[in-house]
Amino acid sequence: MKQLQEKIMQDGKVLSDEVLKVDTFLNHQIDPELMKAIGEEFAERFKDSGVTKVLTIESSGIAPAMMTGLMLAVPVIFARKRKSLTMTDNLLTASVHSYTKNETNEISVSKDFLEKGDKVLLIDDFLANGQVVLGLQDIIEQAEADLVGVGIVIEKGFQPGGTTIREKSIRVESLAIIESLQNGQVKFKEEGTAL
Amino acid sequence: MKQLQEKIMQDGKVLSDEVLKVDTFLNHQIDPELMKAIGEEFAERFKDSGVTKVLTIESSGIAPAMMTGLMLAVPVIFARKRKSLTMTDNLLTASVHSYTKNETNEISVSKDFLEKGDKVLLIDDFLANGQVVLGLQDIIEQAEADLVGVGIVIEKGFQPGGTTIREKSIRVESLAIIESLQNGQVKFKEEGTAL
Q1: Is B70 exposed, middle or buried (0-12, 13-18, 19+ CB in 10 A)?
Q2: pLDDT at position A195, please?
Q3: Which tens digits make up the pLDDT trace of B73-104?
Q4: Domains (ranges, CATH) in chain A?
Q5: B180 vs B195, which has greater pLDDT?
Q6: Which residues 55-74 of B have a C-beta within 8 angstroms of A?
Q7: What is the value of pTM for the model shown?
Q8: What are the two backbone dihedrals, phi and then psi, of residue B128, each rounded to the nearest 5 degrees?
Q9: Nearest residue in A to B19, CA atom
Q10: Which pLDDT score, from 0 to 100, does residue B195 have?
Q11: Distance from the B193 Cα atom to the nearest Cα atom in chain A, whole angstroms
């Protein structure tokens, strides 16, 4: 997605060979017009998948997921990393390990919102090791719903998540795939080329 | 806002005299069309305030804040409850006490995104004791920006936050004000009547 790549080039900061900071438009400050364009793009790519629910995880996934849900006219659910006051015991849960933080967290979704037969589109801001996607997939399976695909705003193509998930025959649509962050430079994988 | 009141009556669950569960459309599952209508309503109410930034806090404030920012064509910032990997030491912080959880948390916003002279509209899902609004106001003052108003989706009119904030001459626009939750019934304050 050209508009997103340009925004990354313009505003993204390479903090190390593995870390790209995009908090000017995606995960601290949000650019609403860009989120709308991202939602339109995901909706276009998954328009024939019969999506009934968009699922994401708090917090940075919420903005792109909500715009996607708006464009597809379906509800959006965000998984919780911490239980909220009004979340009772009617939960689907999975464990997600974060390699960057070196901690394992339980994520949860109320059983009320994922049903057998739901066709679920996962949306997240980043794909790195794929642990969040695998955790959400686990929750979708517990609900006997179907995962129809994964929409990622920025995929770190030099980390294993994309390969792990595609090897499970899950459709992954990443709007920007970063091939490397070496020497402080963002290098994109061109669309249509193999990783 | 009639559409919101109807949604609360239809889908809200009164868990106690103080707790209303609205996780079918606001803070776990999100109704994107309703969020769009909420964003339009806030934008209409604050259209003459010269808003340059919308500020909220993760996670449940993000959806209504983003739709408001989209309608006003300004960036949205969400304060963090936990520091993220890429948040370095360039932060504005404030302490926020949660009476419901009986814990005090530090919230933070990067100095990069709030500037002197910014006209900031705060958006949040709930107003109860007002501690989040006061914490965000503290951060806005640290940045030497101006708080032009507060937009709340659901105000608990029987808790003191609304009074506390209005007494500081801050404009508060709540789309639904709940007068009481007694006997399992949601009772709204009618618009235009004093609390």
Answers
A1: buried
A2: 47
A3: 999 999 999 766 566 678 999 999 988 788 89
A4: 2-188 (3.40.50.2020)
A5: B180
A6: 58-59, 62-63, 66-67, 69-70, 73-74
A7: 0.95
A8: -125, -80
A9: A86
A10: 47
A11: 30
Task: Please answer whether residues B188 and B195 qualify as being in contact, where contact means their C-beta atoms are separated by less than 8 angstroms.
Answer: no
CA-based nearest residue in chain A for residue B34: A70
Q: Each residue of B107-133: pLDDT tens digit?
A: 999 999 999 999 999 999 999 999 999
Structure-token pair, residue A125: 């801001």
Contact of A114 with A55, CB cutoff 8 Å: yes
Residue contact B78–A24, C-beta within 8 A: no
CB contacts < 8 Å between A and B, how many?
A: 123
State yes or no: B14 annotated in a binding site: no
Q: Is B130 annotated as a binding residue?
A: yes
- Amino acid B92 reads L
pLDDT for the residue numbered B101: 81
CA distance B33 to B11: 15
Helix axis angle, B62-72 relative to A32-45, nearest 10°? 110
Three-class SS of residue B133?
helix
- Give the pLDDT of residue B87: 62
